Amino acid sequence: MLKLFSVPQISYMATSPALSNKKIYPHFFRTIPSDLNQAHAMLEILKQFEWTYVSIVYSDTEYGNHGYETLTSLAYLYSICFSTPQRINKEHFKNEDYDTVIRTIANKTDVRVVVLFAEKSTTLRVLDAAKRLNVGTRFLWIGSDSWSSSNHRDFADLDSSRMGQEMAVLEGALVVQPLSRQLSGFDKYFTNLTLEHEKINPWFREFWQEYHRCGINDTEVMIREEQDLCCWRCRKCGLYQYKVNDQRCEDCLLGTRPTKDSKRCDSIPEEYIDYYSPWAIVAMVVASIGILLTIYVWFIFRIYGETPVIKASGRELSSLLLLSILASFLMTFAIVAEPITETCAITRFGIGFCYTLCYAALVTKTNRIHRIFNNISHSPRKSRYTSPKSQLLITGILILLEVIVNVILLIMVPPRVKHIYPTRDTKIKICQGLDDRSYIVSLIYPFVLIGHEKEKEYEEEKEEEEEEVKEEEEEQVKEGRRIEIEEKEKEEEDPEE
């Protein structure tokens, strides 16, 4: 199954030679030698002591069958003959069947050496049968790696009243065991593991309970405050804490909250304005209407662009003003979009830029009209820098200042997304600058242009008031002269009468 999902598997006891086939088991590894090495070792022992005629008993399992096949396939290289092989079905064999195996070897062959290639349980039952039949020193046993030194103790415990016969059966026995050594620190590390290790080893809980000989209550997430292995006083982790190990809880970071089992912290779902938010939909509808109206006005300008009215209004600056209005409406879609680095950059740059584009055109246009009318009253010569190219150049210079400011701000503080947490269970995604109002810096220059425009309007209103006062004074002077003339005419008429 693991092969299907390309999951590596490491075994500490699987010795089958078949597992060495990397074409079939490409992701299997082991820390123990293959049975092929064990078979060579057994055959080397037989050859060394010139035991060339031997019997073999093996279990009807993958371990036993592979061991038997490996031994028999290599036997000719060592001039070894295996006589009367006995296969044991450990699932169905009873004591009588094991006794039959021993009798067959004892009665039908002249062998003295028996190779045992079987699992621990099968090996013990074969040796127990030899003990029951009082074989004594008739056979010399050579066992595979499943029969370690601990098996001797297990075998001896089967019937302690017959210790002499047991030792007679085991006398001279040889066991092939892979070379191993104690790994420094491993036992301490492994026995000190806590239940947190269950996250990466789902079978660890079973080992932990067996090793410490105690059960585990899964109904609540607890940590222990006393150091007894199986009995301790427990307390619950906090509402926003997760269990680090059996002794400690820690707070979840902002923007996260503990899972139901409190074993880790999961991220809180983000909240943000996007195109599906009700407020965003209203804003986009209004912006769309504004875009359509702006495009409609632009078409009117194109159609009647050569008329005196359009020319007198300044086609170039009017077109630039329409462009700024269109860009301002389009900015709505960037502002209500999901906050990402790109939309944050567009928003920070675009808000101030659109206002600057609009007010720079208005300031230039107002200044042009003001200078033209002032020049008419003072000089018959045409005002300088009032041509369309000059006006566009002046507007471009005014806009360039805003562009420089915005670029510097973007370099000093690169656009990025951040999160704010109004409550412990709320995580709002915004563009950096919206929380501390730093984006207002890009609006300072447009406000200056607005102030300049207002100042121009004030000056024009003041001049209009002065003109009105002069006109009133002139009217009063004219009225006074008219009255004087009428009085003189009356005086001239009276003497004649």
Automatic annotation (TrEMBL):
PROSITE patterns the record matches: G_PROTEIN_RECEP_F3_2 (PS00980), G_PROTEIN_RECEP_F3_4 (PS50259)
Region span, Disordered: 456-497
Gene3D superfamilies, alphabetized: 3.40.50.2300, GPCR, family 3, nine cysteines domain (2.10.50.30)
Keyword Ubl conjugation part of the UniProt annotation: no
Basic and acidic residues biased stretches: 477-488
A matching Pfam family: 7tm_3
Domain G-protein coupled receptors family 3 profile: 279-450
Record's keyword terms, sorted: Cell membrane, G-protein coupled receptor, Glycoprotein, Membrane, Receptor, Transducer, Transmembrane, Transmembrane helix
Any GO molecular function: G protein-coupled receptor activity
Main location: membrane
Compositionally biased residues, Acidic residues: 460-476
Signal peptide: none
Transmembrane segments: 276-299, 320-340, 346-364, 392-413
InterPro entries, per database record: ANF_lig-bd_rcpt, GPCR_3, GPCR_3_9-Cys_sf, GPCR_3_C, GPCR_3_CS, mGluR, Peripla_BP_I
Compartments in which it is found: Cell membrane
Membrane topology designation: Multi-pass membrane protein
Gene Ontology terms: cellular component: plasma membrane
Record-given protein name: G-protein coupled receptors family 3 profile domain-containing protein
Organism annotation: Vespula germanica (German yellow jacket)
